[in-house]
Amino acid sequence: LNPQRLSALQHLSASYRNLPCAADGRRKRKYVPRNPYTHTDTRGNAAYPMQPTRNYEGPEMFEKYDLDTLFFIFYYQQGSYQQHLAAKELKKLSWRYHTKYLTWFQRHEEPRHTASEYERGAYVYFDHDSGWCQRIKTDFAFEYQYLEDEPM
């Protein structure tokens, strides 16, 4: 082998040894700082809470959150108990989750047309992708097959 091909072969070999594994693509659920720093007051006590507040996980706390907070928890704490509680509270507030569009809808007015498979009318939906705001779809057919209807 000439030196160029030998170098290329060594690079390929090194690349193969450092292939990413499936776990590299998984998102870590909890942030843990490498060099945690605790700011203390003059008495040596932590200046801010070191543990999350216990009642944060209580369902009664979620009744007090506004819509933006509930949507934030739903979209940014995926797979957690808090996401479940946020979804439960959104359902209490008459929001319905659309499994095809992966977003929340709420009737803006009574449906103009109702059938066994869908209803058509004006809906407010939460746009979490492009605007983080509520928008209105005036002539939308909400197909019941895409309604997430797990009991909460």
Query: How far is the N terminus from the C terminus?
Result: 67 Å
The helix count comes to: 4
| Rounded mean pLDDT score | 87
Main sheet overview: 5 strands, antiparallel
Structure overview:
The chain is of the alpha+beta class and 152 residues long. It has four helices and five strands. Strands 1, 2, 3, 4 and 5 form a five-stranded antiparallel sheet that branches. Helix 3 (67-76) packs antiparallel against helix 4 (81-92). It is flat and about 75 Å long. The mean pLDDT is 87.
Topology diagram in text:
Blueprint: H1 3-17, H2 59-62, H3 67-76, H4 81-92, E1 96-98, E2 103-107, E3 113-114, E4 118-127, E5 133-143
Antiparallel strand pairs: 1-2, 2-4, 3-4, 4-5
Helix pairs in contact: 3-4
Condensed summary:
By secondary structure, the chain is α+β, with helices and mostly antiparallel strands. It is 27% helix and 20% strand.
